[in-house]
């Protein structure tokens, strides 16, 4: 083999080694520290919008089998785990269909949860809601699934304004966040849910357009085991109003590094 050929082969080997090392480092980083997540649906409006891009803090609650891609971590239970606090926005693995969801923790182990006329009751006491204006968006197909938003208006055409009432909800520990209401819905009134040990109750902030713990699987989420929590969402890194994060001209300038409350 000539010296030129040997040099070329050495270069190829070094390139392959660099790629392998980079993939290993990225895999370790994603498994142990932060996982990228893109918001595909409107269930957490207006806290999170379709097209928001964020990193999920995987150190917040420790590690379980779902911490690795494809649930490949050989972990039984949870390691180095802290439980989420009420009001945390969390990415978790759906208990039955394996998809990753993002919702807000409203029920902790031992709590009772109920919805009455659109008001959240925790351990028999209402979480107060104070009116905070109106959330307005365009009635159009949104996100990769192309779904249309739920509106207060009984009849709305494509291109029209779609409105929802906005409220600030206060949880028992005093934390506050915005919720949206689009009028009466089938999940505005529920029975009493008792959250067992090792499970959590999740709801979307866009209350009338969220698949969450108010409905049992497969059509809903039901109660989520602790082992299914992936991490806490703390901050939006950037956001795109277009169909792709690569369309930089559609990025929302007011959402760069926006804290999630």
From TrEMBL:
Q: Where in the cell is it found?
A: Membrane
> Which catalysed reactions does the entry list for this protein?
Cleavage of hydrophobic, N-terminal signal or leader sequences from secreted and periplasmic proteins
Q: How does it sit in the membrane?
A: Single-pass type II membrane protein
Q: Which domain of life is it from?
A: Bacteria
The molecular function terms of the Gene Ontology recorded here are:
serine-type endopeptidase activity; signal peptidase activity
Q: Which keywords has UniProt assigned to this entry?
A: Hydrolase, Membrane, Protease, Transmembrane, Transmembrane helix
Question: What Gene3D superfamilies does the database record attribute to this sequence?
Answer: Umud Fragment, subunit A
A single GO cellular-component term on record: membrane
Q: Which CDD domains match?
A: S26_SPase_I
Can you supply a Gene Ontology BP term from the record? signal peptide processing
Kindly name one Pfam family recorded for this protein. Peptidase_S26
Locate the Peptidase S26 domain: which residues? 13-236
Q: Which residues cross the membrane?
A: 20-39
Catalytic-site annotation from UniProt: 43, 103
Q: What is its EC number?
A: 3.4.21.89
> Which family is this protein grouped under?
Belongs to the peptidase S26 family.
Protein name in the entry: Signal peptidase I
